[in-house]
Amino acid sequence: MKRILEPAVLTKLRTIGDAGLDQLPSAKRTVDELRRRTDLLPQSVVPDPDKLFLAQCLYRDYTAEISGALLLAALPQSYATEYGAGVLGAHGQLTSNLTQRIGRTAQFLVTVLQQGENTADDQNRLWDWRCSKPGTDVTDLPWARCVQLRLFHQNVRKTLVSSTDKAVKALLGDENKAPKTPLNQEDLLGMLLMFSFVVFEVLDRFGICWTADEQDAFLHLWDVVGGYLAIGSDAVRKELKPTYEIPAGWQGLRPPTIDDSRCLVNQIRTRQWIDPTPQANVSGISWTSLRAGRELTRALLDELQAGMPSLLKPVPIAVMRSLNPEVVRNRLNLGSNGVLMQSLSLMPKRRARVAPFTSIEYPNKLAGRVLRSLANDVTARASVHLGQKFELRIAGAPDWEYGAASAEVDEGINVIPVSEVQLDTTQSTQARSSPRRAPRVASTERRASPPARRRGAAPRSP
Description:
This protein is mainly α and 462 residues long. Helix content is 53%, strand content 2%. It has a two-stranded antiparallel ribbon.
């Protein structure tokens, strides 16, 4: 595997938290104070209105697919990490409310992925902190939500480092103890890259292809998010410089090309996804991190299943198993799928030659459509459930109505997956050229029963 960063560099990143906030007094660690600064974004990250709008259009056109990729794959894969999951579990040990974390994550995602207008002024309003007038409400702006999360991370670091609870210290493990720190730059970078590349991988499983420009635009949006989260900030680069100097052209801590970025996320995965099965070498494994990741996954599945009718409650975990690699399934103890999902995975795939002695395997189209439809159904129902439970604020999407499914979602309600609205991905390019209303997530109209027919009577003509 190609190495983008040497292990010594990644180890050094584990000793760096938020170097910029560490230098500020507590009174200056607020959104109102930080928005007055001129260095809120690193010099290497400059918001591009055109790329940001293209990324928002992609989310608009594939709302259910991208949301499903984040809920059913990106989050579980972050829970499966060897070092990061212990931090999430340790903080959960203090707050005793893992479901609230899911609500905060959902609110963060719908805010940063909200749709803006195709103008530089509107994109700057959303993403440039300098365009927000002092004293105005910026709660629903993406840049402000990122800064709030950055401050939350700093509070979590301070709480965990100062904790004397033995259970918390055990969950943190050696990789998050001094001189290393919780929520360090390696873990944050891995999370940021997973939220980008997992989406690409899941959409590929669904049979959806994006151009290089579209992938670059989606990565750019998360680069800006990472910049506001102080991932690869100027202060971080300065502290890292004695060990490694980040080359010119990098976006924060991300290489400039898609291929190198994919290599970097795979490098972090290999480092933190340690196979726990008896056949693997488990000398470096921490069983405490496995427990933390499984508890977090259980909390996520509880929320996903709460939005499903009783007969469909096994669907979320079945889809989650299908969308994640084997090592993640083993670390999270997701088990194996039943006959239907196993049959989908065994359907023949087409191989194509891409270079001399090199070929790749394309997913089966029929299996991709079935998996996409199931994932979209889970996502649609989860959106209704999470929106009602956590009262999510969805700025920029006035057509998204939780009231449309205010009645309890059960077997009698006709839930319309987004996949039924747009299954033909060949029409996506045309759809992006003009804004369209978001499809209704659910309909409360009950299915009409067919009229009873007397025994022996002839069927009515259609």
